[in-house]
Write a structure and sequence with these properties.
Number of strands: 10
Largest sheet: 7 strands, antiparallel
Number of helices: 4
Radius of gyration: 41 Å
Oligomer: single chain
Strand order of the largest sheet: 3-4-5-9-8-7-6
Shape: globular
Distance between the termini: 122 Å
Amino acid sequence: MRKAYRIQLCLTAALLAGCLAGCGGSEKTSAPVKEEAQIAAETPTATPKPTATITPTPMPEPVKYQTEDKKMILYLPDKSWENVSDQDGIRLFESEGKGNITILHRTKEELEDFIIPDSEKAVGQFYKENGIGKRDYEVQKYVNNSIGDVGIYRYTVRFEEAAGFEYVYSVNYVVTAGSEIFSVSGTVQQDDVALLEQITNAVESLQICETDATAAEQTEDGHEESNEKDGGTSEDFQENPQFVEP
């Protein structure tokens, strides 16, 4: 009996020693973990590199164009636009790879077939009579800013790629005053928003300095009013001519 008791004491001592040894072992393995965490904390972080500043491309300087009769002024997008035709009241400007701009000034009697775009339906009629179906284009913008007897119309059309046209957009600005028609249209050969904006600005920059009605009034008067600055005529001081604007 006493022998069995001694054996039990020896087993208990051995188990207790094993437990203590196990706890001591866990403390030894935890030390390297703390050391690794300390090394990671002391590692310097990389300094972010400065972001490069993107300089925006400056817009091209518009070029002023005035018709020989001094009735109209237009600001072309830039110097690349050339006057390739100027006859019968039609002036055509082109810029290679960009498009063209056409300025038209005639009377309603001379342009019997001209469809005045006084509604979006009239725009559709114009394309229909020119053999262009509704599936070939989309009217993206239409504005009617007519005032009294002066008609002022703007519209932009985008052509479908499947239609096979050499241009993507058509921008139009039409003014009717009495018996006269003033029309500016521009075509855009690229699907480029910036180029579309440039040509739109050029088309809508049209300034009408004189109409047949205002010229007739001056003729009926027999003379022009004197300018109060030095007794000259108003023609001598046309820095700010009369414009037909919306």
